[in-house]
């Protein structure tokens, strides 16, 4: 059983609410569902105070849901999916700020069951979502990346905005990263004018576009790229960078250029995007800091607490934000599984972790019964920290 490393802060009992700020448990619960289940568990565990739910995301899957939970309007559009079929995707908008989640149009979850398309998947649908947001008057577009099925360097996005990518015979290239190896010319004469729109690339990935730390080498295998596909894709992306940078300047080595299979490269080079860590920007977007005033505890979480968590995923970002605002507020985390030591958790600002596998070692049942199990973790947190 997870227990606090230190007792609750003296005087915490005089404070008011508990802030619940989790990411999704991928494959089982959305961030909002995790928050609701934790809150129900706290109540069952004897906590009668107020809970403030702030489901968040780090720029990947669930980013639009987090924005909607914070008061943004959801807008649905039919766009081109990763393998060319139409999919129903959504973005979020409030005032002149829109949140576009790339995975809503090019995510791995949108591929047909049992199918991967590392050489041919396209980001065209992401560009179509950007056009939809611009058409509704957005003057700032936050582009959240993560969970993509694509390694096309954002070429599909550019095509959706009006660019033409042609081979040596003048024929339009087919979709996907592999085809970029035949790229001969880039025609931007019909590119949609998006001047006046500020783009923010919200990502926890700082990889460059090319090389051993690049989009193809690091993330291609996760998208189904074989050992032979990886160098093919890397060479194709290098050709894309050579042609694109003749028109837009050098961005291949910029941190984040390799995000979402190189979509970050296109956003930096052609949209003038500035990169910000996804979780930090999303916390700002949902006014997380203001929810901490008077809080006695913050509960965050995600499906797996592991080494990736420490590289800027939601729980570490939440803990960092709490420490910057009020280090006297303890932060604990819920998760499906926890592969971090107590020392690693402590270094990340997390006082204790509560994992589903502590009460149900069968991973299949953890997925199937995630909701009730999270409630049981909420009861434990109430006993350890609040009652």
Automatic annotation (TrEMBL):
Keyword Magnesium: no
Molecular function terms, GO-annotated: glycerate kinase activity
Keyword Kinase on entry: yes
Superkingdom of this protein's organism: Bacteria
A Pfam family recorded for this sequence: Gly_kinase
Keywords: Kinase, Transferase
A single GO BP: organic acid phosphorylation
Family: Belongs to the glycerate kinase type-1 family.
UniProt-recorded name of the protein: Glycerate kinase
Organism of derivation: Trebonia kvetii
């Amino acid at each position: 059983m997870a227990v606090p490393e230190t007792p609750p802060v003296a005087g915490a009992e005089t404070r008011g609410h508990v802030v619940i700020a989790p990411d999704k448990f991928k494959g089982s619960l959305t961030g909002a569902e995790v928050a609701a289940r934790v809150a129900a568990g706290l109540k069952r565990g004897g906590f009668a105070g107020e809970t403030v739910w702030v489901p968040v995301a780090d720029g990947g899957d669930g980013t639009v849901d987090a924005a909607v939970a914070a008061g943004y309007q959801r807008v649905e559009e039919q766009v081109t999916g990763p393998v060319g079929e139409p999919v129903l995707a959504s973005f979020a908008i409030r005032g002149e700020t829109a949140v576009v989640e790339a995975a809503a149009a090019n995510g791995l979850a949108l591929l047909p069951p049992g199918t991967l398309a590392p050489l041919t998947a396209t980001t065209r649908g992401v560009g179509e979502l950007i056009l939809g947001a611009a058409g509704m008057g957005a003057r700032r577009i936050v582009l959240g990346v993560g969970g993509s099925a694509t390694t096309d360097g954002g070429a599909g996005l550019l095509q959706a905005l009006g660019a033409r990518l042609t081979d040596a015979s003048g024929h339009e290239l087919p979709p996907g990263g592999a085809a970029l190896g035949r790229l001969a010319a880039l025609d931007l004469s019909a590119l949609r004018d998006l001047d006046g729109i500020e783009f923010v690339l919200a990502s926890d990935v700082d990889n460059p576009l090319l090389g051993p730390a690049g989009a193809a080498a690091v993330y291609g295998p996760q998208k189904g790229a074989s050992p032979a596909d990886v160098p093919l894709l890397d060479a194709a992306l290098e050709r894309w960078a050579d042609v694109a940078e003749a028109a837009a300047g050098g961005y291949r080595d910029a941190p984040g250029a390799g995000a979402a299979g190189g979509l970050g490269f296109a956003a930096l080079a052609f949209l003038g995007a500035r990169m910000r860590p996804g979780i930090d920007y999303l916390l700002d977007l949902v006014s997380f800091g203001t929810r901490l005033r008077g809080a006695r505890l913050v509960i965050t979480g995600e499906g797996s607490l592991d080494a990736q968590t420490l590289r800027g995923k939601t729980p570490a970002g939440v803990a960092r934000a709490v420490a910057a605002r009020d280090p006297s507020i303890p932060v604990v985390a819920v998760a499906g599984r926890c592969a971090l030591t107590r020392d690693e958790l402590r270094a990340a600002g997390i006082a204790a972790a509560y994992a589903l596998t502590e009460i149900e070692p069968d991973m299949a049942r953890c997925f199937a019964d995630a909701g009730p199990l999270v409630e049981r973790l909420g009861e434990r947190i109430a006993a350890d920290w609040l009652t």
